[in-house]
């Protein structure tokens, strides 16, 4: 069987070479977290058990990673693992990632509601916009 870390590096390199720089960065970040947790870059696929994954999840949370970061790393690991299964270098294990978090959470609301935007736009003194055609035009687009 193969090694998760070396396979992950090959996948990340392939993504970078094909111009998928953002995805390659996520794969490399996930790989670095696994290496730090495993304390070695030698990780045979057979050692990537549900218990290993659950321990990795606890490790990430212990380092104050958000649930969305945990999910990103777990989904990345799952994608790499599934590629390895397809290439027959990792064993197929049904529901291998079932007990680790792979969803998304809205931890913080980042957008204003429509009513809040309207209130802000009405509260801006009109004299700031008088005489400046570009600002008047921009304000018109906000409605």
* SSE topology string: HHHHHH
* Number of helices, where a helix is a run of at least 4 consecutive DSSP H or I residues: 6
Low-confidence blocks of residues: none
Strand share of the residues?
A: under 5%
Describe the secondary-structure layout.
Blueprint: H1 4-17, H2 21-38, H3 50-62, H4 67-86, H5 114-123, H6 133-141
Helix pairs in contact: 1-2, 1-4, 2-4, 3-4
Description:
The chain has six helices and no strands. It is mostly helical and 143 residues long. It folds into two domains: 4-86; 111-143, no CATH class. Helix 1 (4-17) runs antiparallel to helix 2 (21-38), helix 1 crosses helix 4 and helix 2 packs across helix 4 (67-86). The protein is elongated, with a radius of gyration of 23 Å. The chain starts with a helix and ends with a helix.
Annotation keywords:
about 140 residues; about 0% strand
Summarize it.
This protein has 143 residues and is mostly helical.
């Amino acid at each position: 069987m193969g090694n998760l870390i070396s396979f992950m590096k090959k996948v990340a390199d392939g993504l970078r070479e094909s111009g998928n720089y953002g995805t390659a960065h996520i794969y490399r970040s996930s790989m670095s977290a696994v290496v730090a947790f495993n304390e070695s870059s030698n990780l045979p696929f057979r050692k990537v058990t549900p218990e290993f994954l659950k321990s990795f999840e606890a490790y990430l949370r212990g380092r104050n990673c958000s649930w969305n970061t945990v999910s990103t790393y777990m989904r990345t690991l799952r994608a790499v693992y599934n590629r390895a299964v397809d290439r027959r270098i990792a064993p197929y294990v049904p529901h291998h990632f079932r007990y680790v978090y792979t969803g998304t959470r809205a931890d913080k609301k980042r957008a204003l509601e429509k009513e809040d935007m309207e209130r802000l736009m009405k509260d801006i003194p009109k004299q700031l916009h008088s005489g400046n055609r570009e600002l008047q035009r921009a304000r018109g687009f906000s409605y």
